[in-house]
């Protein structure tokens, strides 16, 4: 599939999306979101894609939503843009398979917020992440005020959102905004290694774990534990549960089929 602003390829179970609008530091305009939506739908449907990786270029993962596309907009335009970005982001967040964001260079505003919709964020040591929207007289509109406090707590979220000052990779790792920091050269191989590991797991158990976590985080502990119990018990109806446990008892590696 060919797109104007992204490159999408599927290689041995890995769906790889590269944001490719380098002259504008991969700023996310409606066309980019629309192309991403198309890819996410394909990735969701294609059983050959086991893990999705989203990456940018060396200088920028994405420097945010496209300011040109909204600067002179009114309330109606702001609704239209956020209707679209929220729809695309939620599609990514709900992806029934693991997702990884490979962050190099700037991941700002809507760019970082896109990465927050992934299960894993691996950053290179040149990464600079933040939500500078306050400096534009707005607030993060791509989930930042909701996802950041859930990820790192209200205090640090306030620091990022109120001050709008980006932070470097090592601090982002300390704060739990990214899972790991590696050198720029290692970024893609590291993400591919992680994807390979994930591909050895049961796809149905991975999906169940993701659903349970995502549903439960917005519930009381008691309600969440009920969701977990039901999901756990459901997995006993799968071949992968039998295979996983038999393989353990037979002292061999399991071979999961995703059913
Ligand atoms: N929107 C539109 N264009 C952007 C952009 C953005 N978010 N970020 C960068 N660009 C463009 C620049 O305008 C410039 O284009 P021209 O060459 O045509 O002038 C080009 O990309 C290169 O950028 P710079 O010359 O600015 O590069 P730099 O190295 O000097 O600075 C930067 C890099 C610090 C990331 C700077 O570009 C910057 O501050 N960008 C904006 C970051 C930002 O505010 N992001 C939040 C956007 S709002 C948002 O995301 C809302 C939301 O929550 C959904």
Tell me about this structure.
- The chain is an alpha/beta fold.
- Helix content is 47%, strand content 16%.
- It has helices spanning 30-45, 75-93, 110-115, 144-152, 154-163, 169-175, 184-199, 203-216, 221-234, 239-249; strands at 6-11, 14-19, 51-55, 60-62, 99-103, 106-108, 120-124, 128-130, 167-168, 180-182.
- The protein has a six-stranded mixed sheet with strand order 1-2-3-5-7-10, sandwiched between helices.
- The two termini are 29 Å apart.
Keywords:
single chain, 259 residues, alpha/beta, six-stranded mixed β-sheet, four-stranded mixed β-sheet, 10 strands, 16% strand, globular, binds acetoacetyl-coenzyme A
Question: SSE layout and pairings?
Answer:
Elements lengths: L5 E6 L2 E6 L10 H16 L5 E5 L4 E3 L12 H19 L5 E5 L2 E3 L1 H6 L4 E5 L3 E3 L13 H9 L1 H10 L3 E2 H7 L4 E3 L1 H16 L3 H14 L4 H14 L4 H11 L10
Parallel strand pairs: 2-3, 3-5, 4-6, 5-7, 6-8, 7-10
Antiparallel strand pairs: 1-2, 8-9
This protein binds acetoacetyl-coenzyme A (CAA).
């Amino acid at each position: 599939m060919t797109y104007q602003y992204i490159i999408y390829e599927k290689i041995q179970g890995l769906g790889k999306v590269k944001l490719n609008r380098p002259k504008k530091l991969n700023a996310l305009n409606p066309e980019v979101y629309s192309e991403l939506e198309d890819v996410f739908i394909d990735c969701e449907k294609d059983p050959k894609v086991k893990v999705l990786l989203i990456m940018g270029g060396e200088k920028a993962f994405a420097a945010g939503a496209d300011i040109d596309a909204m600067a002179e907009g009114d309330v109606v335009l702001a609704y239209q843009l956020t209707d679209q970005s929220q729809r695309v982001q939620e599609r990514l967040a709900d992806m029934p398979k693991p997702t990884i964001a490979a962050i190099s260079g700037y991941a700002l505003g809507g760019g970082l917020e896109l990465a927050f919709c992934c299960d894993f964020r691996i950053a290179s040591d040149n990464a600079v992440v933040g939500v500078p929207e306050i400096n534009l007289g707005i607030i993060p509109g791509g989930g930042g005020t909701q996802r950041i406090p859930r990820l790192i707590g209200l205090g640090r979220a306030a620091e990022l959102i109120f001050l709008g000052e980006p932070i470097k990779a090592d601090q982002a790792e300390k704060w739990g905004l990214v899972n790991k920091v590696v050198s720029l050269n290692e970024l893609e191989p590291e993400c591919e290694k992680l994807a390979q590991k994930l591909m050895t797991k049961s796809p149905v158990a991975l999906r169940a774990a993701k659903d349970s976590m995502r549903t439960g985080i917005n519930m009381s502990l008691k309600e969440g534990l009920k969701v977990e119990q039901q999901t756990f018990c459901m997995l006993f109806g799968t071949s992968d549960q039998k295979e996983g446990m038999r393989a353990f008892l037979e002292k061999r590696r399991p071979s999961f089929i995703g059913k």
